Amino acid sequence: MTYLKKILGAGAAAAVLFGMAACGSSNSSSSSSEGGDVTLTVWGPSEDQASSDSWLPKMEAAFEKEHPEYKITWKNSVVAEGDASKTVKQDPSAAADVYMFANDQLGTLIDAQAIGELSDDAAKQVKEQNDDSIVTSVTGTDGKLYGVPYTGNTWFMYYNKSKFTSDDIKSLDSMLTKGKVSFNLSNSWYMPAFYIGAGATIFGADGTDASAGIKLGDNAEAVTKYLVNLVNNANFVVDNDEGAGLAALQNGTADVLFSGTWQANDVKEALGDNYAAAQLPEFTTEAGTFQMKSFSGSKAVGYNPNSKSPKLAAQFAAYLGSTEAQKQHFEMRSIVPTDKSLASTVSSDPAAVAQMDTIANTSTLQSTLAAMSDFWDPAKTFGTALVNKEITLDNAAQKTQDWADQYASLSK
C-alpha cells in the first residue's frame, strides 16, 4: 500500500493553528509586550517572492488579517533554503527574523544559536500535520522541535511510461534493458543511494550518533563494481548538475531521470502523455539485490531567537507551515505539502505521489548533525571518478577502501 493510500484511508486531518503563541518558552516573557508597529525580515527562495502576487507576499497579507494587533512592515530578501545556514550563521543577530531552510542544516543552525525552539502549540501543529519521519527531520538531538515543515525534500524517478511496464520500474536493471536511464552519479546527494541501500550507515542507523561515524558497509565493493558496470552500460546516460539528464529527456535520448518535484513541470513538458513518476527501484549486485534509498528530509520555516520580535517571528513561521499556507504553496508553485490532510489535494499529481511514496518507502532520513558536512566532498570525488572511468573492476576494491578510509580518519 502506498503512503498516499494509507494516509487517505486514515482520513488524517490537521488543525490550522493560526494566531497561536508559537514561540519557544524561553521567549515568552521577553516578547509579551510585542504589538503595534513591527518590522519583520523574511528570507526565502526567489520564486516565492517574485511579485506581489507570489506566495510569500500573499501569506504575509493573510497573516496581517489574522493579526490586527500588529502593523507589520515586511522586508523580504532572497536566500534559498539550501543557503540558509551558511548565511544565517555569519551573524545570527543580524539575520532574518524568519527564514526557510533545508532540514539537513538543523544541527548547524542549533550550534549557531540561530533557530528557536517551537512552543508546545507549534510542536503540536507539526506533529498533527506530519508523518513521523517529517517530524523527526526537524527534531534536534535534544528531542526538541526547531522548524515547521512545509514540503518534503528528496528525489525519485521520472520515466517514460511508453517504455516500461509497472513491473519494469521496480528494477533498475530491467529498465536498463528497455530504455535509456540517466543518473547524476557525480552528485553526492544522489550517488550514495546505492551504498545506503546496500547497508552503508551515516552516523548510525538513524543519523543521530556522531560517534558512529560514516561506514560504507560490507557490500560497498560490490556496489562499486555495479556502478562501474553501470557507467559502461550503453543504455546509461550521464546526468550532471548542469541538467544533462533533463536535456536528454527533452531530446529523446533518455527515458528516465532521477530528480525531485522542482523539475516536475519541465519533465511533464518533455514527456507529454508519457509522463510518469515513481519511487526508487531495486538493483542487483554480486552481493545481492538491494533497494536504492535516497536521502530525504524536509524544507521548513524557522524563526530566529535573536529577533527583536521573537513572538511575532515564531507565529509567522508557524503560519507559513500551516495547512492553508501549504495548500496555497502547492496551488501556486506545485510545492508538495507534508500536511497529511492535504493528501487528496495532490493525489492526481504523479510527482507528488512519487515524493510521498519515496519518503515513506525508499529513502533514509538525512542526518542533521553538523558533522554531515564532512560527508559530501569525498562522495562527490568518488562519484566523479566513477563517471570519468578512473575506477574500474580491477581497482574497485582499493578505491572503495580508500574512500572508506577518508571517512574513518575523520573520527580519529
Give a structural overview.
- Strands 1, 2, 3, 4, 14 and 15 form a 6-stranded mixed β-sheet that branches.
- The model is unreliable at 5-32 (pLDDT under 50).
- The chain is built from 17 helices and 15 strands.
- It has 412 residues and is of the alpha/beta class.
- It folds into 2 domains: 20-153 and 297-365, Periplasmic binding protein-like II (D-Maltodextrin-Binding Protein, domain 2); 161-295 and 371-410, 3-Layer(aba) Sandwich (D-Maltodextrin-Binding Protein, domain 2), CATH 3.40.190.
- Strand 1, helix 2 (55-66) and strand 2 (70-78) form a beta-alpha-beta unit.
- The protein is globular.
- Belongs to the bacterial solute-binding protein 1 family.
- One of its GO terms (molecular function) is maltose binding.
- Keywords: Signal, Transport.
- It comes from Bifidobacterium tsurumiense.
